[in-house]
Amino acid sequence: MVLPFQNNRFVHIRILTLICCLTMASPASATVVRFNSNLGSFDVRMFNTSTPLSVANILNYVNDGDFDDSIVHRVENTISQLADGTFVNDPFVIQGGDWSLPPASVLTQIPSDPPVLNEPGISNLRGTFALARVGGQINSGTNNWFVNTRDNAFLDTIDQGFTVFGRVVHDGMQVVDSIANLPKQTIFNQFGQSLGNTFPMHGDFSSGITRDNFVLFSSVTDLNIPDGDYDFDGDVDGSDFLIWQRGNNSTTDVAADNNGDAIVDAADLVPWVTNYGTVALSAAQSVPEPSTQVILSFTLLALSFVARPSRRDY
Question: Which H/E stretch holds residue 177?
């Protein structure tokens, strides 16, 4: 059987309709939170659309500066011995948001806002950013966050599941893994009470632990990047299209998930096309580079063929 070609004019009308529908269906703005630690920085793409309550909750702490000078207070992993006698590290999570350690001060618990309703549904796989809770209490998440350092799908079914509301993107897991592999120490508060043997330490602490030995976040900030800026450099150009192309249809490579629905798809290309040439860093960079012009031309050309059926013989 031979399928006839459709009229080109009709195809182009379908394309324009598709683009308009995607534009109207993608009102959400991108949210990326950067964690700047003394071991490096990692960025988290937030899932605004899928988990709006959890994202709004964590942004309250971020925008109030509550996480500045906060620490990673929990690293969970186990050392297991393989049949050949070698030892391997089996990671689990790193957790923060509970304690801060300002300069010339003592370890202080970060005040928490009212708890947020649970929003399960996205699996706790490696690299996902999730909300910690009080054991056995479903709607009890406040300021404690954790990053899954392995696939922890079993967390999806405990007490209706732990809420995943973001994912570490680009090369951020390299920093997370370096934190997860640090040695742990028992830390005491100013009253001599043990806070547990889960605090990761780096550097030389053979003569005693100082502030510099903690994994400390100097700042945690909302990057406030332009929509369509998928490499977070402040401008929307050809490199951002390549990141979208790489992650298209992915739920793990989500740097280009502009609308925060936890998957990269066609709707996330619309903000790039709309804001192409937008520059936030410097007016001097407002003229797109030639390579970007070429990519944009090919993108628009590709869009013109999306709905055109191919000819096939059966």
Answer: helix 172-180
Q: What gap in Å lies between CA 187 and CA 239, rounded to an integer?
A: 44
Number of domains in the chain: 2
Q: Which residues pair with 41 in a beta bridge?
A: 36
Phi, psi of 303 (to 5 degrees): -60, -30
Q: Count the Cβ atoms, other than its own, within 10 Å of residue 277.
A: 15
pLDDT per position as a tens digit, 232-253: 999 999 999 999 999 999 999 9
pTM of whole model > 0.85?
Answer: no
Contacts with 67 (C-beta within 8 Å, 6 or more apart), sequence order = 35, 61, 96, 97, 100, 110, 217, 219, 220
122-148 pLDDT, tens digit per residue, is 999 999 999 999 999 999 999 999 999
Range of the domain at 13: 8-29+227-303
Q: What backbone phi and psi angles, to 5 degrees, belong to 279?
A: -130, 125
Residue 311 lies in a domain: no
